[in-house]
Every structure is written in structure tokens, then in C-alpha cells.
Amino acid sequence: MKIDWNFLLSVITIIVASYALIQTHHQMKLSNKQHLFDKRMENYLIAMGLIQLYRNNCKDFDKDFDEEKDEPIFALKSYFIWLTNNTYLEEITTAIDNPLKNPGHKEFLIKLEKLKEVGTKIKFLFPDNASDALGDFVFSYQELLFSMYQYQILLNNMYEINKDHKLSLEEIQQKFGEPKHRLKLQRSFQNLKQADDLLKKKNVEEKIKNQIKLL
User: Fold this and answer.
1) Residues 62/115/183/202 CA torsion (nearest 10 deg)
2) Which residues of 183-198 are buried (b: 16+ CB within 10 A; e: fewer)?
3) CA 10 to CA 17: how far, in whole Å?
4) Which of 3, 18, 96, 178 could pair with 80 in a Cys bridge, judged by C-beta atoms 3.0 to 4.6 Å apart?
5) Distance, CA of 109 to CA of 100 (rounded, Å)
6) Nearby residues of 15 by Cβ (< 8 Å), 6 or more positions away
7) Which of 93, 57, 70, 95 has its CA nearest to residue 192?
8) What DSSP assignment string belongs to 101-162?
9) pLDDT of residue 118
10) What pLDDT, on the 0 to 100 scale, is given for residue 42?
11) Which residue, 188, 197, 192, is CA-closest to 73?
12) Quick one: pLDDT at residue 22?
């Protein structure tokens, strides 16, 4: 029987090409899986850093952010420093010292946008409702930092206008509408507090961790 070497060579070529295609597909699948794992881990760690900062410090300034408090929050700078005291946020810690001044102001705004991106990515990277709760916590954290920054600008303006103490504290508060701005700040804190309560109630951290492990 005469062997058709051309046909045999064609068959071998097809088999080799098919195997190479399968291997390529497998490698791409592994690469995509690794990329997803890296992205999930990156954003999870950022969110966990925020959670730890909040939980480690919230009891120290909880009373000042209670809506029943009826006086300016003069210790705001310290609170801001505590809430930005990790490697991810450290570059904006000093922004509160000179709000609206560059380059600190620009760095602060850039970091706020990055926090928004983290919150959005978390909601897309993880498949269930746990990701919504974690993403909302990040959004609430970002909103609180921005409210604190705005309130510090108000305090600075109050101090600058009243350096000679011609007006009483009550008068300068009313002149700048301080109670209204303080209430906005306090509500931002309460929103973050509620977001954290939801994380605990839904056991979100453990659920997210398990989703990362499943990869």
C-alpha cells in the first residue's frame, strides 16, 4: 500500500496547529484569570485600608460628628490626618494644612478621583451585592474627605476674617453659615458610618475575600 505522504503531512500539520491553538487559548485564559485576580486584589486591599483607618479612629471623633453637636469642629485637621494615615492616602495628608493651594490641592483632587475609580471598579470586578456595599463604602469615604476639606476652608476663612476677635463665635458662625456646612459634614460622616455597618451586617469582607480565592 502506497502511503500518501502529502496527506499524512497535512494531517500532522493540522494536529500540531490545533494543539498550538488549544495551548494558546489556555494561556490566554490563565492570563485573563491572573489579570482579574490582580485587579480584584489591588482594589480590595485599597478598600480594606480605608476600612481599617475608619474603624481604628472613628471612636475618637464620633462625638464631634454627631448631628447633636452644636459647635464648630476645630479638631478637624487631626481627624483628616488620621483618616489619610496610610501609604495609599499619605500624599494628601498635608493638603488640609493649606487647602486650595497647589500642588497639594491638585494632588487631593486627583486622589479623590482615584477613590471614585476604586469604588466603581469594585462594583464591576466582583459579581454579587457584596461588591455594591464595598463600593459604596469607598464612595462614602471619598465624600467625607471632600466634606472635611471644604469645611476646613470655611474654618480658615472664619479665622482670617476674625483675627482681631471683633465678632463673637456665634456671630462669625452665622456670618459664614457654619452650622449648615457642619451639618453637611456630619451627615457625610454618618453616611460612612452606615456604610460600614452594612459591611458588617452582610459580612462583606469575608464574601469578597472568598470570591478572590475562587479564582
Assistant:
1) -60
2) eebbebbebbbebbee
3) 10
4) 96
5) 10
6) none
7) 57
8) -TTHHHHHHHHHHHHHHHHHHHHHHS-SHHHHHHHHHHHHHHHHHHHHHHHHHHHHHHHHHT
9) 97
10) 94
11) 188
12) 60
Residues of the chain under the 70 pLDDT cut: 1-32, 214-215
Q: 3-state class of 11 per DSSP?
A: helix
C-beta atoms surrounding 46 within 10 Å: 21
Phi-psi domain of 100 (left: phi exceeds 0; alpha: psi -120 through 50; beta: other) = left
Burial class (CB in 10 A: 0-12, 13-18, 19+), 134: buried
CA–CA separation, 99 and 85 (whole Å):
18
**Domain layout of the chain by residue ranges:** 39-214
